[in-house]
Structures are given as C-alpha cells and as structure tokens.
Amino acid sequence: MSFYPAFTLAEVLITLGIIGVIAALTIPGLISKWREKATVAQVKETYSILQQGFRRAIDEYGDVSSWCDISEGYKKCTDTIFNNLSATTRISPCGVNKCFSSGQSYKNRFGKSNI
Question: How far is the C-alpha of 33 from the C-alpha of 56, rounded, in Å?
C-alpha cells in the first residue's frame, strides 16, 4: 500500500478562507493609499506647472507688483494677472458662461468629466 502525502479538501478550503479574509481586510487600505498617492502626485504636478508659469510670467512681464495698479479697479487687475499667467501656463481663459454654455463636456486626463 503506497501513501501519498497531500492536503485534505478541508485544509485547502480553510487556507483559502483565511487568505480571502486577509485580502478583504487589506485591499481597501491599499486602494485608499494608492488614491491618496495619486492625488498628491496630481497636486504636485499642478503646483509645478503653476510655479514654472509664474516664474516665466515674472521673467516676461516683470515683478508682480508692476502688473497692475489696484486703484485701476479689481476687475482690470484680475484680468491682467490672469492674462499674464495664462500666457505662460496651460490655463485656459474660461469663465462659467464661456466654457459651459455650449453644453460641451470637458474631461480631465483620466477621462472623468469636470462638469
């Protein structure tokens, strides 16, 4: 009579059950950490783009204090600052009525709608 060492079906099922419980407890934490890291990376990328654009705007238009005089009006000053920054970054000149009045949907690089 030959004897083959093997696991019984009960042992295999118990092991798979334990692995399943551990996975169910671990995976949500891993996903949330991944999402957090992705968000941090997006914020850092956006900060870098804005910082580089701001530096280019200063190189091109001079010191920020010389861009406008607040006594000329808030709207004019805001428009000047926005125009200087949009010329040196990937900021699109877009207001609520300008961008979304046509009913177009704008998507970010991950395919999610911004509306």
Answer: 35
| Tens-binned pLDDT, residue by residue, of the chain (115 aa) | 677 788 899 999 999 999 999 999 999 999 999 999 999 999 998 888 888 888 998 998 888 888 888 777 778 888 888 888 888 876 665 554 455 444 445 455 555 554 4
Predicted model pTM: 0.54
d(CA 71, CA 77): 9
| C-alpha–C-alpha distance, residues 17 and 31, integer Å | 21
The answer to whether 85 and 54 are in contact (CB under 8 A) is yes
CA distances from 108 to 35, 82, 98, 113 (A): 16, 21, 18, 7
Helix or strand holding residue 32 (H, E): helix 9-61
C-alpha neighbours within 13 Å on the C-beta side of residue 4: 3
**Main-chain phi, psi angles of 107, to 5 degrees:** -120, 145
